Amino acid sequence: MENTVGYIPFLLLGILLYTSVLTFPSVRSNGFRSRFSPLVPIVSFFYFLFGFDGSVQTTTVWDHSLLPISITFQIDGLSRLFALLITGIGSLIFIYANGYMKGAKYVQRLQCFLLLFMLAMLGVVLSDDLILLFIFWELTSISSFFLIGFKNEDEASRQSALQAITITGMGGLIMLGGFIILGEIAGTYSISSMSSPEIISQITSHGWFVPMLILILVGAFTKSAQFPFHFWLPGAMKAPTPVSAYLHSATMVKAGVYLLARFSPVLGDTPVWNIALISFGGVTMVYAAFQSLFRTDMKSILAYTTVSALGIMVFLLGLQSSDAIAAVSLFILVHALYKASFFMLAGTIDHETGTRDISQLGGLGKVMMPLFAIGILAAWSNGGIPPSVGFLGKDLIYESTLHHPAWAYVFTGLSVGTNIMLFAAGLLVGWLPFRGTRSHPSVTLPHWSLWVPALLLALLGMIFGLFPSIINNGLINPVADAIAGTEQNIHLKLWHGFNTVFYLSLITMGVGFLLYNLIRPGAKLLSFIESAEHWGPKRILHALANEFVGVSSWITMTLQNGKLRIYLLVILGFLVSLLGYVVLSDTNFVIDKEQLTNITIYEGITVGILFISVFLTLFSGSRLAAVAAMGVVGYTLCIIFVFYSAPDLAMTQFTIDTLTVILFVLVLYRLPRFIRLDFSARHILDGIVAISVGALMTVISLEVLQRTPEREISDFYALNAYVMAKGKNVVNVILVDFRGADTMIEIVVLTIAAIGVYSLLKLRLRKNEKME
Amino acid sequence: MEILLAITIGLLYAAGIFLILRRSMVRLIIGLILLGNGANLLIFLLGRISKGKPPIIPEESKVFLDAYADPIPQALILTAIVISFGLQSYAIILVKRAYRVTKTDDIEELTTTDEI
Description:
B: Helix Hairpins
């Protein structure tokens, strides 16, 4: 059993490769390649079944040298159980989906998404690094978005998909925050290295422990559809049934449970953990079980019972006793087995009869014997009737609630109540459609691929119940070890004698059967019970989403309205307020006159001319005068450069300014006259903004002048201009030698501009461009 | 003199911004040119100004013997002047072209690419 873990990265890569091959357009007849797809999960299933025995194995693919992240995979009992569920149920679902989608469009696309999802899910349960886990976690959200919205021409489907990704994606992001806090206070992002006693006490005694735990719990609760985030799961039933059977029974929704189980040794058994998990799990299991009783859509009933079952798992993880851990370890398997068969059953009935409404179905047992068998077996396990494995699971649940030190009666009462309702709901799906008068006389038994997979799973539920030793040591005990963090000793037994637990089971079955006979869901009850969901967090979420869209479009319409002036005003206003705040709060406005040079008469006159020309440019009504005044501004600058030891600048400025003015005047006669387009209110506002920017620049430059300049680089150039580059004009040497490459690129830019100018001048207007 | 130049910088910035906020495209270009001049003068002033000491090494020497004006701001501004010429000439021709196609000088009428 050594080194098998080393193949995990290759397995994941292989799945990815196969998926990408599947995305190529098919040359041969549609669906040829898709027939081979079930082989991928089947091969993976046998790898996980025979390659591992539940002992802990780790492999590191890549380790970042600076950041505390790595690509490390680890497999232990818990990971292995999940990997087996993902690939095992995945294999059956792929076979089932091939039958279910036969002749439908986009079979390959569905398989791609399913494989991608399977890959992500395997990644979640096999990652040992927090960040890696998060990446796969988000990947499950993304791939399930595509799966839920697979019928993309249906608006309700798209909305459900969006709702699911909003809830789980948001939860994932919140969880990332928790992960980062956890990684920082633990000093490691590797989950397996957190389980040493010193690090655990370091984490649990840290001041940030409670916020971190809450963030991580939000992530787990949203993924596992705990109240009040549960509503996305019934909505996700818009997906094709193979998807629901895969994602929403065994895999994705259990990712949250997996996460809680994974962190249970590190974060578990603290007051916050216990209270949060028991209360949220407890509320969820009772509320969702109650809701499931009044549904008429088979998938809807199953969705709510799934939420309820997830609630039970979270509840058990909150109890933290070794009984509860044994119970949850077994219940994960039990629930996956019967719920996946239930879902496939519902899908097949829908596929054959065209409806999933239990009030319109009846008498199917006569023609669909194998399906009836699936229904009975699944309801059997779901109801916890001996000798099914469900009975063992329920046994352990009661065992753990009865042994709770303080709240034994309350918790036992709650779980018995939940199980009674789940019992009745199971009969509604697995029994009711097959009894009574035939509703669909023409229906016959479908192709084997539509019922054999489900029958297999349902039968397994019975076999494991009769012979619990098959799964006891190899599968369930290692899971309990991983969740508890210590060695556990589980003995699954079918028969415990006539004890309290047995009587509770009898009560569950008896009352459940009574309840089933009393309840007949119909439209009236349904609308009444749905009003409870109406006022829930779903409404808040929708209101938030609508507001979000509203505010975004308002901001876009206001800021991005296509008017240059508004854009500029916003940018400048922001600049002025931000820079102005910094400058005003940081400046003392003391000017050291000693450092300044005096003003001579010729300088004063030059600057005076500059001022006058600027005002002429601003307020002249004639274009020619404005351009000429602008030219004068350039020339006065040129003179200032001459005064202050910059002969090269003066020459360049003189040439360029002349060229610009000439160019301007040349095209000016083709341009329209200035029209006073603006209102004066605008002038005032623009004037205020312009003057404040100008004043700010003045203040900033005066402020900078007060500080001592750094001349290190200048001195380097001055020293080396002649010594290294044999040039005496330092400015020239910098441009053509030290920074020669920059100058070359500058010439390229100029050339591009020249080509642009030339082509714009030479380009003839196409006929449709002429406006006259 | 530094104070006067600082005020000049402020004036050039203010005038440039006021002009680019106008609706006429010709004024927009003039505003851009004034802004460019203001920025050049800003860099020049912040490199400290000194009279009669151009950064040219004397004939008979290999290094500077006296104080000299900072060559780096000058090199930067020289580049800036040339590049802004490329920008300005392209903008002038573009405005001319745009006017021929759209028959308007008003920027606020040019809110969509569909008309061109």
